[in-house]
Specification:
This protein is of the alpha/beta class. It has nine helices and ten strands. Helix 7 (154-166) runs parallel beside helix 9 (190-198). 30% of the residues are buried.
Length: 202
């Protein structure tokens, strides 16, 4: 049974001619059958288009393709499919281009298990072997691990957090890149590192 909140918003988007898919930790944890509190959805609608049917949403980060909808006390993050330019500061892409194709969106994501798109019909769109890694209990970077870490060294801590939380192993090439590039953590804003560490499972 798909999440009722997801189905509610998927119906709204579909009524206006757009797609809405579950993604990230939401789809990962749903497929693992474990509880989740974060709601991450993606769409081919742009924020300007969403304003026509979701005027109550928060559009503070609309230029990045991200909006937030409150359903009671539950926050729902909805992001437009996008492509990203090179990361020049170890944290943010130099440019963002909206797209209508999830096949172009997935390559910017961090791990294969976080790039599983679920449709309102329950179909899983998997472009990088995420379901296989989910079954094998593996954390694997999408594409070249070193490149993904150099883009955003915080992904080192995310990989280790997910491995600990889920009881997964980090895939060999990903683990080697993490150990080699761990010094890049010193380039990050200490507050960002602290916030990520606070998410660590106890």
């Amino acid at each position: 049974m798909l999440d009722p909140l997801f189905l509610k918003y998927a119906a709204i988007y579909e009524a206006h001619g757009f797609l809405l898919l579950m993604i990230g930790g939401t789809s990962r944890d749903y497929l693992l059958g474990i509880p989740y509190a974060d709601y991450d959805f993606v769409t081919d609608a742009t924020p300007d288009q969403e304003k026509a049917f979701l005027p109550e949403a928060q559009y503070q980060f609309a230029k990045f393709g991200s909006i937030k909808v409150m359903e009671g006390k539950t926050e729902i993050d909805i992001t437009t499919f996008r492509q990203e330019g090179p990361y020049l500061d170890h944290r943010h892409p130099s440019s963002i281009t909206f797209t209508r194709d999830p096949k172009l969106d997935y390559v910017r994501r961090d791990f294969t298990i976080n790039a599983l798109y679920i449709t309102s019909k329950g179909e899983v769109l998997d472009y990088c072997g995420g379901q296989k890694d989910l079954k094998a209990g593996l954390i694997r970077f999408i594409g070249d691990p070193a490149t993904r870490i150099e883009e955003d060294p915080l992904r080192i801590l995310r990989a280790e957090r997910f491995a600990k939380k889920l009881g997964f192993s980090i895939e060999a090439k990903s683990k080697a890149a993490i150990e080699k590039l761990r010094p890049l953590l010193s380039t990050l804003n200490p507050e960002k590192v602290k916030m990520e560490l606070l998410k660590e499972p106890k």
